[in-house]
């Protein structure tokens, strides 16, 4: 996601020329890897505003997420697969800040850049927030707080229709928000004083009918967050804590709010890297955890299947706020690859053919975004190493 700075306090992001935009697209297409996804963060060129970069205030120590020990055979294969991986990251992938790889329900590899990053460090996930928002919609669906993805949005936020008489607002369904097909032009900037302001979101001009075309748009995700909070009748962070995070053992997080006091949907969620991996495991398990269905399996399948062709900035297909790719898989294994991606190289990568989940965080800079080191690590190092080891 590209971030313009907050109004009146920081300069705006530089304008990207048409020629530069073409070069960026060519680079993205040239670096397409496993399943056709680009080795770039879901972001454009720009700087992250200071309000998004501040670390959350320290909270009470949390119980760390753990996994059961692997059997000796699998443990030996993991050791073989990841031999020398930490040294390579240290020496050659300076943008990468943390990595957690979980295979077959066991912690296979873990890395934190020292000094400064630890297992309990909260990481700014950037647009990974969008994919977690999609999971929360599934929780609300299971709870009966929303009736389905085809439900109209306006009855949940009737102020929309008082703010604007644009007829296309009446046509908006949750399906359009989840698939980034609301009809607004794509906007990948973030400005704290407007991002959770309903007036600013809905007064933007439509460029297409709802459902007609994909456009990666922060405003659409922020509108979904507002509507979902209204549907569940609680602040979104509270609902996430009780309904999603606590059952998964995630008891340390921070969810930034906009100037109006609402949790953002486009960005703002801070999590430990292990928590990111645990969320990937939930997706891999199609919403079931510890014998309990946290969200409907059919919804998770739809969320991580191609709903439309997608496009910029990742140039991959799109599901429900998850990037998706078809992947060759052995008989009986799922061929879906699901990806949550954020500015600079924040990833949750779910690869069912190997029963593998990888979470990675990176520096949040334009340079880190352009280099795509975390994506290269996942695609060229981790997946290939696990395949060769037979794990």
TrEMBL record:
Per UniProt, residues of the Beta-lactamase-related domain are 98-379
Which residue ranges does the record annotate as region Disordered? Answer: 1-20
Query: Which domain of life does this protein belong to?
Result: Bacteria
Keyword annotations: Hydrolase
Enzyme Commission number(s) of this protein: 3.-.-.-
> According to the UniProt entry, which residue ranges have a biased composition of type Low complexity?
1-15
Pfam families per UniProt: Beta-lactamase
UniProt GO molecular function: hydrolase activity
Where does the record place a coiled coil?
A: none
User: What InterPro entries does the annotation carry?
Assistant: Beta-lactam-related (IPR001466), Beta-lactam/transpept-like (IPR012338), Diverse_Enzym_Activities (IPR050789)
Q: Which PANTHER family match?
A: BETA-LACTAMASE-RELATED, BETA-LACTAMASE-RELATED DOMAIN-CONTAINING PROTEIN
Protein name per UniProt: Serine hydrolase domain-containing protein
Output the lineage of the source organism.
Bacteria, Pseudomonadati, Pseudomonadota, Betaproteobacteria, Burkholderiales
């Amino acid at each position: 996601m590209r971030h313009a700075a907050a109004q009146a306090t920081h300069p705006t992001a530089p304008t990207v020329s048409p020629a530069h935009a073409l070069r960026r697209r060519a680079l993205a297409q040239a670096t397409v890897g496993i399943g056709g996804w680009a080795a770039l963060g879901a972001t454009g060129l720009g700087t992250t505003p200071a309000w998004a970069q501040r670390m959350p205030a320290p909270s009470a120590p949390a119980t760390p997420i753990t996994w059961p020990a692997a059997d000796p055979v699998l443990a030996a294969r993991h050791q073989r697969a990841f031999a020398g991986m930490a040294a390579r990251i240290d020496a050659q992938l300076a943008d990468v800040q943390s990595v957690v790889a979980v295979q077959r329900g066991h912690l296979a590899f873990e890395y934190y850049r020292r000094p400064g990053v630890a297992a309990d460090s909260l990481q700014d996930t950037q647009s990974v927030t969008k994919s977690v928002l999609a999971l929360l919609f599934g929780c609300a669906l299971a709870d009966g707080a929303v009736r389905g993805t085809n439900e109209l949005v306006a009855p949940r936020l009737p102020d929309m229709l008082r703010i604007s008489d644009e007829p296309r607002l009446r046509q908006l369904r949750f399906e359009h928000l989840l698939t980034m097909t609301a009809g607004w032009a794509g906007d990948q900037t973030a400005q704290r004083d407007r991002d959770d302001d309903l007036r600013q979101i809905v007064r933007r001009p439509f460029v297409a009918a709802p459902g007609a075309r994909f456009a990666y748009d922060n405003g659409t995700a922020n509108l979904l967050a507002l509507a979902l909070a209204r549907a569940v009748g609680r602040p979104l962070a509270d609902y996430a804590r009780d309904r999603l995070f606590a059952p998964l053992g995630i008891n340390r997080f921070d969810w930034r709010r906009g100037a109006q006091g609402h949790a953002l949907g486009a960005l703002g969620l801070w999590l430990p890297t292990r928590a990111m991996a645990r969320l990937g495991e939930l997706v891999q398990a199609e919403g079931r955890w510890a014998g309990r269905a946290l969200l409907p399996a059919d919804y998770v399948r739809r969320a991580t299947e191609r709903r439309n062709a997608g496009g910029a900035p990742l140039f991959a297909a799109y599901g429900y706020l998850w990037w998706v790719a078809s992947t060759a898989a052995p008989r009986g294994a799922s061929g879906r690859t699901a990806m949550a991606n954020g500015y600079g190289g924040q990833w949750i990568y779910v690869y069912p053919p190997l029963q593998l989940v990888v979470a990675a965080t990176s520096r949040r800079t334009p340079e880190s975004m352009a280099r795509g080191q975390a994506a290269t690590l996942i695609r060229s190092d981790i997946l290939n190493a696990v395949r060769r080891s037979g794990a």
